[in-house]
Q: What sequence folds into this?
């Protein structure tokens, strides 16, 4: 068998669009998704799952109603389920999300123009 | 609230022992574990779960019965459930594992001297 690793830099080189997570791997019913983001997202929460953020390049801020966390490259953070949060990136950030398959990027908010399509593999 | 990211380099600086995964984060019932490894592990498999390997530093080889994969830093690989595998590191590798809590490092093999204690947080 020809086994191949998944290389983050190579995967990020395959797309330029922001705020559109791409699936790169599946672990049981969980997905590893990478995304490029810049600017402000919307406030949202995921009522039934935690969400892992791993920053591969850049510096991500996640705002909460009662504070914020700065996640630099080489760092991660778990947003607990049900907690309202809003990602923000002054400059473009390359990050990886880990969450169950089927989770919407806009969480429990009604689908709108920034809701990304799910299950887009790259 | 005072929110803090989890920094991989800082976490790896807190221990030296090899082959003893330490939990650094939990996502629902999944755990993120970091480990330092060097040399050969044993052949084993996990009959009920996939296992994610992310290499933070160094170069990891995972042998399979019908091949092998080299995972360099900045790369990841998912070992599918039920697949026999044997990690190997010529020089020390710093890696992160993601898998459901309670998974033994030696998989379905009977517990032995290299079976690590679970749920050791760092």
A:
């Amino acid at each position: 068998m020809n086994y191949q690793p998944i290389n983050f830099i190579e995967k990020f080189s395959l797309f330029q669009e922001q705020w559109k997570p791409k699936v790169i791997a599946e672990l049981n019913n969980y997905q590893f998704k990478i995304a490029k983001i810049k600017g402000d997202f919307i406030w949202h929460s995921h009522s039934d799952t935690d969400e892992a953020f791993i920053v591969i390049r850049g510096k991500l801020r996640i705002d909460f109603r009662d504070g914020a966390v700065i996640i630099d490259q080489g760092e991660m953070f778990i947003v607990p389920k049900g907690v309202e949060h809003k990602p923000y990136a002054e400059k473009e950030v390359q990050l990886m999300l880990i969450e169950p398959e089927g989770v919407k990027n806009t969480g429990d908010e009604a689908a709108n123009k920034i809701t990304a399509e799910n299950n887009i593999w790259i």
Chain A has one helix and eight strands. The mean pLDDT of chain A is 96. The radius of gyration of chain A is 14 Å.
